[in-house]
Design a protein that fits this description.
It is a single chain. It contains six helices and ten strands, in the order βββαβαβαβαβββαβα. It has 218 residues and is of the alpha/beta class. It has one domain (15-217): Spore Coat Polysaccharide Biosynthesis Protein SpsA, Chain A, CATH 3.90.550.10. Strands 1, 4, 5, 6, 7, 8, 9 and 10 form an eight-stranded mixed beta sheet that branches. The chain has a two-stranded antiparallel sheet with strand order 2-3. The model is unreliable at 1-8 (pLDDT under 50). Belongs to the MobA family. Residues 19-179 form the MobA-like NTP transferase domain. It is found in: Cytoplasm.
Length: 218
C-alpha cells in the first residue's frame, strides 16, 4: 500500500534536515578514497555538493582523521547554497555506521539524509518525495527497492544516535544493525513510479568505467 502523500514533491526550498555525506571508504575498486576522485579537473565531491546543497540546511562531510585536513584545504575558497562542514569519524575503518554516528553527533537539524560521496546521480524529486511522505517525528525513513531497504539513501532522526552508538560499541557495523531498536518507516518503490529514472538516485561510482560514464553524461 502506497502511503498517502502530503505533497507530490515536498515543496521547494531547503528541506529542514542536514545531509550527511560519507567519505571514509577506501575505494579499493577505484584505487583510492573516492573523496578525491576528479572529473575533468573537478572533484567528484564538488559535483555532489553543487547538486545537493540547495536541498538541505547544511551538509556534513563525515571523513576519517587522516583525510580531514586535506579535504578542508580542498574546500577552501568555495561556497555553496548551504553551509558545508567536515566532521571527523571517531571510529575510522568501521564503515558507514561510524560516519552516520559522527554526523548525527554534529548536525544542527533534527533529521539527516545519509548518502555517499560517490552518488552524483541522486535525484532531488525522489529525496523530496521521501521527506513529504514522512509520518513520524523520530526514527528512520527509508525506501524499499526490490525488497531491499536502502540504508544509504535514507533519513535518520537524531533519536537514532544512542542506538547507532550502541551498535558501533558492540562491533555490529552494519547500517541497519540498530533498525530493530527504532521506529522505521518504509516507503515502497511504487511511491516513486511516476518519477522518471528514480532508480538512478541510489547509483554510486565504484569503478573507473562508471566514473567515465558520469564524465560523459555531464
Amino acid at each position: 500500500m502506497v502511503p498517502k502523500r502530503k505533497n507530490s514533491l515536498g515543496g521547494g526550498g531547503a528541506i529542514p534536515a542536514s545531509a550527511i555525506v560519507l567519505g571514509g571508504g577506501e575505494g579499493r575498486r577505484m584505487g583510492g578514497n573516492k573523496l578525491f576522485l576528479a572529473v575533468d579537473g573537478l572533484l567528484l565531491l564538488h559535483c555532489v555538493l553543487d547538486r545537493i546543497c540547495p536541498w538541505f540546511r547544511e551538509v556534513l562531510l563525515a571523513v576519517g582523521p587522516k583525510d580531514a585536513s586535506s579535504l578542508s584545504l580542498l574546500l577552501e575558497g568555495r561556497s555553496w547554497a548551504s553551509p558545508v562542514r567536515v566532521v571527523v569519524d571517531r571510529a575510522p575503518g568501521k564503515g558507514p555506521l561510524a560516519g552516520l554516528v559522527a554526523g548525527l553527533r554534529e548536525m544542527d537539524s533534527p533529521w539527516a539524509f545519509l548518502m555517499g560521496c560517490d552518488m552524483p546521480w541522486i535525484q532531488e524529486p525522489l529525496v523530496r518525495r521521501m521527506w513529504a511522505l514522512r509520518e513520524r517525528e523520530e526514527g528512520v525513513l527509508c525506501w524499499e527497492r526490490e525488497g531491499y531497504l536502502e540504508p544509504l539513501h535514507a533519513f535518520y532522526s537524531r533519536s537514532c544516535l544512542p542506538f547507532a552508538e550502541e551498535a558501533l560499541a558492540r562491533k555490529d557495523h552494519k547500517l541497519k544493525s540498530f533498525y530493530p531498536q527504532v521506529p522505521v518507516q518504509v516507503v515502497p518503490e511504487e511511491a516513486f513510479a511516476d518519477l522518471p529514472g528514480h532508480r538512478r538516485s541510489f547509483e554510486g561510482i565504484n569503478t573507473p568505467l562508471q566514473l567515465e560514464r558520469f564524465r560523459e553524461s555531464r
